[in-house]
Amino acid sequence: MDLQFSNAQRAEVLTQALPYIRRYTGKIVVVKYGGNAMVNEQLKQQVMEDIVLLWLIGVKVVLVHGGGPEITEMMGKLGKKAEFVDGLRVTDQETIDIVQMVLAGKVNKTLVNLLEMKGGKAIGLSGMDGRLIEARVKDERLGFVGEITKIHIHPVTDLLDKGYIPVVSTVGCDREGNAYNINGDTAAARIAGALAAKRLILMTDIAGVLRDRNDPASLIPDLTVSEAKALYGTGVVSGGMIPKVDCCITALDAGVESAVIMDGRVPHSILMELLTNEGAGTRIRRDEE
What we know:
Carbamate kinase
């Protein structure tokens, strides 16, 4: 392939992306970032590039992140063993201190710095800033694991209005000042709902909703809410996929236009989802669309 042809191909790709750029410019997209895309350095760089590119073409991106592996690693360094009940981290007082330190500190500021290095303007928030995520005890057995009671969205909208990429770590608080560890997918869904976002993207470690969990080629690219709910009893939507689909439905019920569960291990999957006609992962939409 000679250089001239290569440049022509690039121009053609940009032209084909134009309708999608027009669709999302000025609109809000909430990305929940975690899983393998977060611990793999090359994928992390590509995710940050995707977000900055979207920001440069006028998309209002909100990045919501977790950091489970980093929390577990820090607990190990401090001689503390991670415990889980029904997939949720048991969070005593010492552990919530570690969660705050890792999520609101190291992970959040690393992502902000990466976005800035790629040419974006980003500011980090925790769910405790401006009481963005208000919460209460979810289950006494889990300690300081929180159930969201209210989203105070103004800290995020203020940053969006000023042209920043808000980067949100999922630590919440109650009116007594207690900090809580909040599920990242749930927080992203509630924040997207409060923003009436155009799109919610949940990055995961699988391709999306699969008819056969052992066959990535069995990906279901598009589901209505009713179709998704009908899959709960079939084994297609089971295990860890159930709360992710639930989060998508929660977001849609709150006014988000559509939600997608995608494979964060695929390079530039965010751009594939938003700026191509094929998309990436499983899109869930309201029945009436």
